[in-house]
Structure formats: structure tokens, C-alpha cells
Amino acid sequence: MKKIFTIFLFFLGTLWAEDPTITVVNSGVALPKIIVKDNSNLDNPALKRSFYNIIVNDLKVSSNFEVVSDASEQSNYVFEYSLSRNNNSLNLNVKIKAGGIEKSNQTYTLNGIEQYPFLAHKSVKSSVSVLGLPPIDWMDHKILISRNSSSRKSQIIIADYTLTYQKVIIDGGLNLFPKWGNKEQTIFYYTAYDNNMPTLYRYDLNSNKANKILSSGGMVVASDVSSDGNKLLITMAPKDQPDIYLYELNNKKITQLTNYSGIDVNGNFIGNDDNKIVFVSDRLGYPNIFLQNLNSTSGAEQVVFHGRNNSAVSTYKDFLVYSSREPNQYGVFNIYLMSLNSNDIRQLTANGKNLFPRFSSDGGSIVFIKYLGAQSALGVIRVNANKTFYFPLKIGKIQSIDW
């Protein structure tokens, strides 16, 4: 067991979380100014304050605006909203004004007050779309987190990207490595230990039921799902040698894709038609990232040529983002972005320990784990805007995350 968990140091991170605050670096060029006006009449001051803060943070993270607080200051836009409560539901009306002219007037309803962060995210996402600004479709997507709850026990929780909302979905035992199974975010996969046997499960959020997919000695982890949701890339180690396997859900066929005497883990589909995979391997004597055709069991090619520990990877179309340990800088890991169609590599973080990157659904943002001394935070990189936002965490020990 100890050997198997050592393997996962290739792509695991740990976090702590607290009430969401926000920090931005690399602020860039001037943006249109926007003022937020809260016309809500709520008898819950904590909810009122938290909702306002999330709206402001969302507008900042969108990287489309400069949020100003002084009503006397000239602004390009006004984000005016009214939040009301009706038993266990919330109603939200949002008006967007420019130069005194109403550009948008939208109403939203949410059943389940505890999910109010998603109501805020959805309203900002829709407002940005109405104004024809660069989209932020990822903003109201849910994040899956595996966190330690006690010794040899961990939970699977669902959260919003600010970690304001958190809901425990699976509890009891050791539950690890959640991975979304479809674009609608109604299905996810995770690994649990069934009578000390690593077992891959498929959880349906609509029915709140988990179904067993397969078991394997050593380890079994679903690291990626094809764009059509029909195929899984799985890391298994039936003989204590982790390799990448393809599992086809329709016919339950398993195909071994790598066959190396060392460590191959963290397989990800890459390319518009999912015809290739990238994965982390120690075949150079240290963790690095390799590329291989899906229909081949050999011919793996090195794709990253700098760094001595490139330990986690995520993909979007022909792009990949990975964490890399900096040479001669103990404990410093940075996030890098590259394309299979170019030799250019873009460094996205500057210092410290930045691990476990994950692309957003549109490829325009990257979430990762940031260590800040004894503390840590969830980082969100807005790639095109060249901005990074940090949300400090205080929710227990995080083992893995998926967006």
C-alpha cells in the first residue's frame, strides 16, 4: 500500500481552505469600470454580505471589468441586483446598465438556499455573455474534491470554485480521485477500497447511486474521460506496476496502452478526436510527460524537454498544462502551458509550489493548488488575461481535485 501511495505523489496535492477571499496578480491593462449595486431586502445579513462578495469576486475573476466601489466614480457599467428569499428558494433579478441605458434585465430562481454561490456565478456568467464580452462558461461549474476526514477515511465533496459551497456526496471509508464523467456534471468516477481491494465506481448524482465498474490489485484510478463520455483512461497496477489502460463503457473492454517496467500514470486524452494520450512516466529516471497514439502500445514520445520533475498534466484539445519542479530551487513547482503544434512553452506561475493543474471546460482558465508557506490556496489562472486569483482554503486535507 505504501508503494502505491508513493506513486501518486506524481500528481497529488494537499490544501487547507477558509472563507473565500481573493488576491490577483499580473493585473494587466485598463478594463471598463463596473459598479455593483445591491438592492436586496434580506433578513439574513450574512447571506446578503456573502452574496455581494461573490458577485464582486466573480466580476473580477471574469477579467472583463475593473470593479469600483465609489458610486461617485465614473463607470462604464452598473451591475444592479435584488436578491429575495421565499422559504427555501432564492429569486434574483439582475439589471446591467451602461450610460444609464438598460442593457439586460434577467431573473433567476434557485431551489436550495445553500447553493446560492452558483446563483451568483450563473448571473455573472450570463451578464458577461449578454454584453458580448469574452465568455466565462466555466464559472458555475462544480468542482470535485477528495479530502481526508480522519485516519484512512476520506470524503468526496462537491464545491463551487470559490469553495464557499461544499456538500459531502460520499462518506465513510477511503474515497479517492474523483473525475467528472460527462459535460453535464451528473456523473463522476472515483476509487474506493472494497474489502481492501481498490475499486472504481461510477456515481450518478441524479439517482444518488454508485455502481461498481471494476477492481484491481495494487491501484485503479480513472484519470480522464473521452469527450463523448464512452471511454475511460485508467491507471491500474494489478502486479504493482502501474500502466495506462483504456476502458470502453459500452462493451466493458479493457485494453492495456502502456507496458513499461516503471511507472506510467495520469493518462489524458489529447487532440480534437481523442486519438492520442499524454501521461506521466519515470522512464527517463524522473517524472516527465510522454505522448502516445491511442491505437498503439508502443512508440511513446517525450513531449516536455525541461525540468527534472514534471509530475501532473491536464489537456484541452491540442494543449497541455503541467506542473514542473524548477532546477536548483528546492520545493519550487511552476505551472506551464504548451501546444503539441508549437515549440513555445508559456510559464503561468512565477514562484512557490504550484501543483495539480486542471483546465476549465473552455480551456481559457486553469485551476491549481497553491502552497503559501504553511498555508495553501486554490489558484485560478485566466490564461488570456494573464491574471491569477487565489482563494485560501480551510476544508481539511485535499487529496485530489477535478473541475
UniProtKB/TrEMBL annotation:
Organism, scientific name: Campylobacter aviculae
Signal peptide limits: 1-17
Transferase as UniProt keyword: no
Superkingdom as given in the UniProt entry: Bacteria
Record keywords: Signal
Name used for this protein in its record: Tol-Pal system protein TolB
Family (UniProt): Belongs to the TolB family.
